[in-house]
Each structure stands twice: as structure tokens, then as C-alpha cells.
Amino acid sequence: GAGVSQSPSNKVTEKGKDVELRCDPISGHTALYWYRQSLGQGLEFLIYFQGNSAPDKSGLPSDRFSAERTGGSVSTLTIQRTQQEDSAVYLCASSPPGSTEAFFGQGTRLTVV
Amino acid sequence: EDQVTQSPEALRLQEGESSSLNCSYTVSGLRGLFWYRQDPGKGPEFLFTLYSAGEEKEKERLKATLTKKESFLHITAPKPEDSATYLCAVQRMDSSYKLIFGSGTRLLVRP
């Protein structure tokens, strides 16, 4: 079956521009997560959705970062006024109900120039 | 503070040369410890979840073990296709979703 799908695969943007990253989770998965992977560092938790609500946004680095999920499915991570330190791979994952096993997408590599 | 430390950072093995990767953790109440494999340009791929000290799980040439302070990923007679970055992550008892990752071990298996 289809896995977690993320788009775009790569994004190059100019400093100060806004970007939107999209995640399409596995059908039927109620939990959705965003992580960030910077060069040479481990994955960093950003936000968790259960259905359309986000009970844990504690990992969002600043108020320039926001995320939403609609219809219990697709999620969008938005970064406003991008900075060079935002350059990283942004990974989305989803889990089926009652499971803690997270299935990851291939990620979006964001480069801010 | 929760912490996950993986060692070594990088490991080079000859095909068939068995070895172990280490994941040391400090967490207030462990719900589970997870191992993932990550190939270049791809997202992490789930391998194992371990929940209690003494637990072991196997998959092909990989075996994961867990103690109260650390986990080992044993690789028996590795093949070049086992080359990847192996990530360890822990989940706290008070969180059913958030994973705290280590920085990973980059494994290269030469033919």
C-alpha cells in the first residue's frame, strides 16, 4: 500500500520567503507527526496531531512555524519569513490507532539561500 | 533531561564481520525504545520496538537487546546492503507519541 507521501521532495527558497510543506499520511492513520533533521543531528520533534487537533506543539522552534491538518488526513507545515537556520530535512510520520509505531515519509529537503 | 547517545558515530565493517551498535539513554520512565534504519535521501524505516529490560528482538541479521540503561543492535555477518544510518529513539512513559532520537550510527559494510 501507499506510504507517507511528502511534497515537494526538495525546496530552495530565498531568505524571508514563506514556504509550505505538505504531508499525506497513510490512509486510516489518526496520528501524524512532524520532525526536523538538521545536518549531523538527530531528528527533532516539532508537532503532533491526533485527528485534526494538535495537542502538542511544543517542538515548534518559533512563532514563524505553524501547522494544520484537515479532514484528519493531509497536513501542511508552514514556515514564514524563512531564515538560513531553517535549512533542514522536514520529515512527516503517521501511526495507526492504538500504535506507537511511526511510519516516516521520505522528507522534504529545505534549503534557504 | 532526557538524552539518547549512540556510539560509535561511524562504523566500517568488512562483509561478514559481526559487530554491535550502542544506544545509551537517560529518560524518566521508559515507555519504549525504537530502532530505525535510514538510507540516504529517505525517511527512517522502522526496525524494532523494545519495551522492557531483557527483551530481545530479531530480524534477519539484526538483533536488538535492551537493558535499563542501554540497547544494543547486533549485526551478524553483515552484507553491503546493511549499510545505512541506524537511529535509536526513546519514548517516555508520559507520552504515547513523541520520539527522542539519538544522532545515529553510520554503518558502512564493504564487500
Structural summary, described in words:
The complex is a heterodimer of chains A (113) and B (111). With 113 residues, chain A is mainly beta. Chain A contains no helices and eleven strands. In chain A, the strands form two sheets. In chain A, strands 2, 4, 5, 6, 9, 10 and 11 form a seven-stranded mixed sheet that branches. Chain A has a four-stranded antiparallel sheet with strand order 1-3-8-7, with no helix packed on it. In chain A, 34% of the residues are buried. Chain B has 111 residues and is an all-beta fold. Chain B contains no helices and eleven strands. Chain B has strands spanning 3-7, 10-14, 19-26, 30-38, 45-50, 56-59, 62-66, 70-75, 84-92, 100-101, 105-110. In chain B, strands 2, 4, 5, 9, 10 and 11 form a six-stranded mixed sheet that branches. In chain B, strands 1-3-8-7-6 form a five-stranded antiparallel sheet, with no helix packed on it. In chain B, a hairpin with a 6-residue loop joins strand 4 (30-38) and strand 5. Chain B is globular. Chain A binds chain B through residues 4, 31, 33, 35, 40-45, 48, 50, 56, 91, 93, 95, 100-107, and chain B through 4, 31-32, 36, 41-46, 49, 87, 89, 91, 96-104.
Order of helices and strands of chain B: EEEEEEEEEEE
Round the mean pLDDT of chain B to the nearest integer and report it. Answer: 95
Helix/strand/pairing category of chain B: mainly beta
- Count of separate DSSP helical elements of chain A: 0
Number of strands of chain B: 11
Give the termini separation of chain B: 41 Å
Radius of gyration of chain B, whole Å: 13 Å
Q: Which shape of chain A, going by the Cα principal axes?
A: globular
Q: Count helical runs of chain B.
A: 0
Runs of chain B in which pLDDT lies below 50 for 5 or more consecutive residues are none
- Sheet with most strands of chain A: 7 strands, mixed
Greatest interface and its participating residue counts: A-B, 24 and 23 residues
Helix proportion of chain B: under 10%
Q: What is the averaged pLDDT score of chain A?
A: 94
Structural class of chain A: mainly beta
Q: Level of helix content of chain A?
A: under 10%
Percent range for β-strand residues of chain A: over 45%
